[in-house]
Structures are given as structure tokens and as C-alpha cells.
Design a protein that fits this description.
Layout: H1 3-13, H2 21-32, H3 44-51, H4 55-69, E1 74-84, H5 113-125, E2 130-135, H6 142-157, E3 161-165, H7 173-180, E4 184-186, H8 193-196, H9 205-217, E5 221-223, E6 226-228, H10 234-245, E7 253-258, H11 275-288, E8 293-296, H12 305-313, E9 318-320, H13 333-343, E10 346-347
Parallel strand pairs: 1-2, 1-9, 1-10, 2-3, 3-4, 4-5, 6-7, 7-8, 8-9
This protein binds S-adenosylmethionine, 6-(5-methyl-2-OXO-imidazolidin-4-yl)-hexanoic acid and iron/sulfur cluster.
């Protein structure tokens, strides 16, 4: 039995009004320890027990873990650019870029190097520290990878951290990305393994884990998270977090996306998630992955400022900045600057 499982079963059985300081101590102990990651394991039940805490207790735990590991008022800022939009062969049920769904997204060719560099300079001037390049591919073909390697090298030379999300990687491709100067590779697990098959059929969960292993093996930082609000259960939300938190080394960066519902995709029309459940998910990610940057990702445009502030309080410490994600909207840069000023947050 995992060391922490016994402790959290106490939490689940507790009367609601009692503050469980023993559990806080246990979770803080995990958060502060820099022992090998295999001791920091979480069962799905333990994570569900976190979700079931009274909201204020959960926030207190998350904020305490957050403060033990990070500057609580600093938020890392990444800007995203879709370097290859639409026409994707995959069937991810949430995605407006899948060719098979009838959405307003058109199939466009790979962007030209100069245009990517102009966008990167703009992102840098706006205060972003990392520039993420996304492509609507199942995975990169060698002839597609070559120009992307050049983009990575040149963006890096501008003094920005580089991130790419290009789909599944084949043997040898992670090495090429590393040699080009890639700092982060984003590849999401998306959801719990049990729910996964309801959302995607053209690639398996294991395919995703294999790509993440390739990224790890060449020492590129891992950025991996998922999407909340796709109709999954709370147990399945906890299951996704368990997958991430129990990796031998949890991802350095964990994007938590709220499903952006796009007309024409199979998940359009899914029942909307209660914002508090989304905040709870952020808090549980913070507690279970104390040293990772937790990114409040897609879905911010539809959130009130108060919900976003709760997400920061719950331990989110990274965002995508700039009015577009890949194909959908994100808050205006000026609006985010105002929000940071109101909350006393400074960009990292
Ligand atoms: N094609 C590559 C892949 O799938 O790995 C890279 C780009 S893909 C669009 C990156 C991630 O964006 C997906 O794994 C998914 O988690 C997220 N995403 C896509 N559409 C979304 C939506 N409608 N709402 C929230 N997140 C979304
Ligand atoms: C991630 O987890 N979220 C970003 C990034 N990684 C690539 C993408 C969100 C996409 C939202 C839908 C769109 O704009 O097309
Ligand atoms: Fe293609 Fe990526 Fe969209 Fe899936 S998430 S359809 S792989 S662009």
C-alpha cells in the first residue's frame, strides 16, 4: 500500500467541517521532499479524496504546497503559434483541426520561417518567455520536420525558450529536436485511460506514453496535461492526474485545458463543467505535482476574472498569453496585463 493512501482515506471519512491538518502535513511532506519521484505516488482514490475536500480546505492545501515550492505571485507566460493549421488526419473528438469534422478551420500549409520569427519577436516584446509552435499533424514526416528544426533554432537564438507540439514522435525525431535547441515538447495524455477511447480512436494511450518517453530520453522538458470538461467523471479527472503525477519524473509543465467547444466537433454540446470543479482540478494537480508548472490553458476566454484568480490561488502558475491559442480565442494581451496588475501577479 502506498504510504499516503492510508492517510487520505482518513480524509475521505472525515466529517466535512473538520480541518484535516494531518493530511496537510502529509501532503506538504510530499511537496517539500526532493526524494526520488517514485516515492511521490498517488492512487486515484487519494486524488478523489482531494477533490472531495471542502473547497476552502482544498484551496488551503494547494496554496500551502504552492508556497512551499514557488513564488506564489509569479506566473510563467508562454505564447502559442499554430505553424500548421487544420487538415489533420486524426479523430480527436474535441479538435476543430481534424479534417473529418466540419468546422470553420481551413487546411493551411506550414508557415514560412520569417512569419514565425515575426510572431516570436512580437511575443517576446509582449513579455512572453516561451514560444510554443503547434502543428496539426498526427506526427511530423521527416520532410516536415526539417523546416521546423530551423524555426526552433532561430527562435531559440532570439533568447526565447522553445516549445513544440507536433504530435507523435518516431524513433530519432526527439534527438533532432534536441539538437535544434528545443527546450519543451508538449504532448498531452488528454484524459484518463478509461475514458480515452471515447474521445480518440486513431492513436492509443500507449502511443502517447511512448512519445513522452522519447522526449524524456533526450532530456527535453516534458509538457503534458489534458482536457477537463469532456464529459469525464470526477474519478476520471483524478485518473488523468494520477497518470501524470505517477510518472517516474512528472512533467515539468502540466497544461490543464478546459474544453473549448467548437461547432462541428463531436464534443460540441457536452454539458458545461461547474467552474469550481475546474478549480478543484487545478488544486489537485498542484498538490500531486508540487514541482511542476501548472498551466491554466484553453478555456480562459470564457472564464470570469474571479475564476481565473481562484485558479491562480489553487496553484496555477503558467498561462498562454496572446489573443489566439491555435485556432480559438484567448483573452487579449491588454486584458491579461490588467488582470495581472489587479492581482499583483508578475510574469516570470
Ligand atoms: N497535433 C498535435 C497533437 O495532437 O499532439 C499537436 C496540437 S494539439 C491541437 C495540442 C493539444 O491541444 C491537444 O492534445 C489537446 O489537449 C489540446 N486541444 C485541442 N483542441 C482543444 C479544445 N477544443 N479544447 C481544449 N483543448 C484542446
Ligand atoms: C495545450 O495543452 N493547450 C494548447 C497547447 N497545449 C498546444 C492548445 C489549446 C488548443 C485549444 C483549441 C484551439 O485553439 O484550436
Ligand atoms: Fe490532430 Fe492534434 Fe487536433 Fe488531434 S489534437 S486532431 S492530432 S491537431
Amino acid at each position: 500500500m502506498l504510504e499516503s493512501a492510508t492517510k487520505s482515506s482518513t480524509v475521505a471519512a472525515m466529517p466535512e467541517a473538520v480541518v484535516d491538518t494531518s493530511n496537510l502535513t502529509a501532503n506538504l511532506g510530499k511537496a517539500c521532499s526532493h526524494e526520488h519521484a517514485t516515492v511521490n505516488r498517488w492512487s486515484v482514490d487519494e486524488i478523489v479524496a482531494l477533490f472531495e475536500l471542502p473547497f476552502s480546505d482544498l484551496m488551503y492545501q494547494a496554496q500551502t504546497v504552492h508556497r512551499a515550492n514557488f513564488d506564489p505571485n509569479a506566473v510563467q507566460v508562454s505564447t502559442l503559434l499554430s505553424i500548421k493549421t487544420g487538415g489533420c488526419s486524426e479523430d480527436c473528438g474535441y479538435c476543430p483541426q481534424a479534417a473529418r469534422y466540419h468546422t470553420e478551420v481551413e487546411n493551411e500549409p506550414l508557415m514560412k520561417l520569417d512569419d514565425v520569427l515575426t510572431a516570436a519577436q512580437e511575443a517576446k516584446d509582449n513579455g512572453a518567455s516561451r514560444f510554443c509552435m503547434g502543428a496539426a499533424w498526427r506526427g511530423p514526416k521527416q520532410r516536415d520536420l526539417e523546416p521546423v528544426l530551423k524555426m526552433i533554432a532561430e527562435v531559440k537564438a532570439m533568447g526565447l525558450e522553445t516549445c513544440a507540439t507536433l504530435g507523435m514522435l518516431k524513433e530519432g525525431q526527439a534527438e533532432q529536436l534536441k539538437d535544434a535547441g528545443l527546450d519543451y515538447y508538449n504532448h498531452n495524455l488528454d484524459t484518463d485511460p478509461e475514458y480515452y477511447g471515447d474521445v480518440i480512436s486513431t492513436r492509443t494511450y500507449q502511443d502517447r506514453l511512448d512519445t513522452l518517453d522519447r522526449v524524456r530520453s533526450v532530456d527535453i522538458n516534458v509538457c503534458s496535461g489534458g482536457i477537463i470538461g469532456m464529459g469525464e467523471s470526477r474519478n476520471q479527472r483524478a485518473g488523468l492526474l494520477a497518470q501524470l503525477a505517477n510518472m517516474e519524473r512528472p512533467p515539468e509543465s502540466v497544461p490543464i485545458n478546459l474544453l473549448t467547444q467548437v461547432e462541428g466537433t463531436p464534443l460540441h454540446g457536452t454539458e458545461e463543467l461547474d467552474p469550481f470543479e475546474f478549480v478543484r482540478t487545478i488544486a489537485a494537480a498542484r498538490i500531486t505535482m508540487p514541482n511542476s508548472f501548472v498551466r491554466l490553458s484553453a478555456g480562459r476566454q470564457g472564464m470570469t476574472e474571479s475564476t481565473q484568480a481562484l485558479c491562480f490561488l489553487a496553484g496555477a502558475n503558467s498561462i498562454f498569453y496572446g489573443e489566439k491559442l491555435l485556432t480559438t480565442g484567448n483573452p487579449e494581451a491588454a486584458t491579461d496585463k490588467q488582470l495581472f496588475a489587479k492581482l499583483g501577479i508578475h510574469p516570470l
